[in-house]
Amino acid sequence: MYRLKAILKNNQILRIIYREFYHAWRKASGVLFVFYLKQTKFKTITRKDLLIEKKKYNLQEFGSDEIVNFGNFYTPKPILERIANKIYPMKEKIVKPFVCEIEEAEIIGNYPVAFDRDREVPRLWRDRNLILETTLPRFNSIEAHIAKNLSIKTILTSQFGKKVQQKPIETACILTNPWSNNFWHWTVDTLTQLEGVEYYYKQTGIKPKLIVEGNLRSWQKDSLKLLGYEEKDLIIWQDFRRTVKKLIVSSFRRSYEDIHGEISVTACQWLRQKILSNVSRTESDLGVAEALCDRISFSSKIFISRRKALGRRIVNENEVIEALAPLGFATYILEEMSYVEQVKLFAQAQVIVAPHGAGLTNLIFAHNPIILELFGAYVGREFANLARGMGFKYGCLGCLSPRGEVRQKDGDMVVNVNELLDLLGKMKE
Length: 429
What we know:
- By secondary structure, the chain is an alpha/beta fold.
- The chain has 3 domains: about 1-40; about 40-60 and about 95-270, no CATH class; about 75-90 and about 290-429, Rossmann fold (3-Layer(aba) Sandwich).
- It has helices spanning about 1-10, 10-40, 45-50, 80-85, 140-150, 150-160, 185-190, 195-205, 220-225, 265-280, 285, 290-295, 315-325, 340-350, 380-390, 415-429; strands at about 45, 60, 65-70, 90-95, 100-110, 115, 130, 170-175, 210, 235, 240-250, 255, 260-265, 300-305, 330, 350-355, 370-375, 395-400.
- Strands 1, 2, 5, 6, 7, 8, 9, 10 and 11 form a 9-stranded mixed β-sheet that branches. The chain has a 5-stranded parallel β-sheet with strand order 15-14-16-17-18, with helices on both faces.
- Helix 2 crosses helix 5 (about 140-150).
- Residues about 120-125 and about 290-295 have low confidence and may be disordered.
């Protein structure tokens, strides 16, 4: 297995082929998983269930409802259909967030999720209910969500496994999931849950431990440190099953009408304020690399390169760089930068040009810039809504795929430089 990973790491074509086969296998196995869940009438506790049973789960709402406007945007006319189908003005209501307690929760899985005992049948171990708010934001039916994001081993263990005999964890919050290693989801779906954890701490005086995976990336560690969490505050998840005496569950910060939708701008602003207020801490707090970062000067006009990514790369990138250089743009490769450097880069940027990709999550730290996002065959509205929701001037440009490109989501692109410069000029007016 280690040799296979090494081969894939060093061969980009094999990595792409492996990923395509993996997604196909996941889709096929998911169909069978959904069938099993329906046949066994698998039990869950939804977000609505938690809100209805406030007293049972000691659920506390905080903050307030918010109405988020994702407004107009710039793009060449006529608007390409693939862009118009995804990005358009919309308004979303996001209800108050909450934090609650699950007593004597059983957490199970390589990425642990929580199960609550059915109080009406306390002697039957298999009568456990999955707490959906400890999985991932849900974008489809319950069965399809579970089949896509949980392993069959996790479900079977919850139904038929023997009770674990290890010493229970006292008070903790799960801060790991299958999307944790994705920079976008770690930021907007995981880190934003810490606002609820902090609210719980202020109300009770109890600071829950954070259950995290063992192989945290450097940017995960740095972001947690900037939010005030040191190694002593973490529990490295090395088990498959444990009991938590009091599991703290903080709601996902997205709109919710049976399934999750658009992100909460209020949550992003909370995260932005927390991280920016701590990003300039002293050398003794953050180390030499971050202290040196304070003295690095970045251009206010930035072009983000994806040349080291697997997909959504710009085939004619050199041509784009040459066209942008006379306008004062500098090129940055985020994979070569520390987390603190990325935060600082976006915090001072006035104009940002970038292909669609997780690096644009850093828009959270920006101060009212102009953003021009480049799309290939795949169009997603994550960063369009992040930018528009935070009130930034946003534009996007649809680009052609290079000859022979067959990938939909990760396909590379060819940028029409004249269209790019023309759109950028209109946005600066």
